[in-house]
Amino acid sequence: MTNTDIKSRFYIVHLEVAHGSDRYDIHLHMEHSPLVRDLMEEVEKKARVTMMNQQLLYRGQRLHMTPDEPLENFGLFNGNRIILVGEKLTGIEDEHFRRLLSVEKDVKVINDVIELVCRDFENLKQSQQSRDRCEQLLRDLQSHGERCRSDLKTFQSIASNLKIEQSEIDAYRKKNQVNALIQDRLDILSNLLSAISSYDGSK
Questions:
Q1: Whole-angstrom distance, CA of residue 15 vs CA of residue 6
Q2: Phi/psi at 85 (nearest 5 deg)?
Q3: Which of 31, 106, 163, 194 is 20 to 30 A distant from 3 in Cα terms?
Q4: DSSP assignment, residue 87?
Q5: DSSP secondary-structure letter at 35?
Q6: CA 196 and chain centroid, separation
């Protein structure tokens, strides 16, 4: 793959976010034109200000008001500086939030594997070969899927066992989001593994 191919497939944007006296370098490498939401997610990780509490300002524009808008629509390009207003998490709530962000990141990695298993299974079905001829590939897909399920169950246990008080509003909300994400992926995986195990192929 050439450099031209890479540039045509990915959008790369580097920005600076100023939060009081703090400065954060934000790097967005994406397959679609980055949205305000993508920026807010990175700011949440780097600056410890949750998306719900962020105000992002650029040349009089309030980016956070339209999270699904592409950054380029605001005239944002590499090297631009954005002002962040919002209270940073502290203490035990910040520790809980960090842990949940780490779990969420790992779950998204597992989701990439699930998508690969889905793609390979769809390709196998398209080939319309018999189950006997595809036995090894089916076993491999089943194995990858089972490993993903085991990992998701582990992360579900980690997130569920975090003792977060309802007074820790942002961490409590994040815990619910992460648990919902994990359960959604487990449901998808359950359907996928069932389809793989019952595959007959061409008649």
A1: 20
A2: -120, 130
A3: 106
A4: P
A5: B
A6: 25
Helix, coil or strand: residue 156: helix
Distance, CA of 8 to CA of 125 (rounded, Å): 30
Looking at the chain, the domain(s) classified CATH 1.20.58 span: 91-197
pTM (predicted TM-score): 0.79
Cα distance between residue 189 and residue 142, in whole Å: 10
List 83's β-bridge partners, or say none: 18, 57
- Grouping H, G, I as helix, E, B as strand and the rest as coil, residue 18 is strand
Query: Can you give the length of the chain in residues?
Result: 203
Class of domain 3-85: alpha beta
Q: Rounded CA gap, 144 and 139, in Å?
A: 9
The position carrying tokens 């491999």 is 140
Radius of gyration, CA atoms only, the chain: 21
Half-sphere exposure of 67 (CA within 13 A, CB side): 10
Residue-wise pLDDT for 67-126, tens only, equals 999 999 999 989 999 999 999 999 999 999 999 999 999 999 999 999 999 999 999 888
In the chain, residues under CATH classification 3.10.20.90 are 3-85
* Identity at 132, one-letter amino acid code: D
For residue 132, the model assigns a pLDDT of 78
What is 91-197's CATH number? 1.20.58
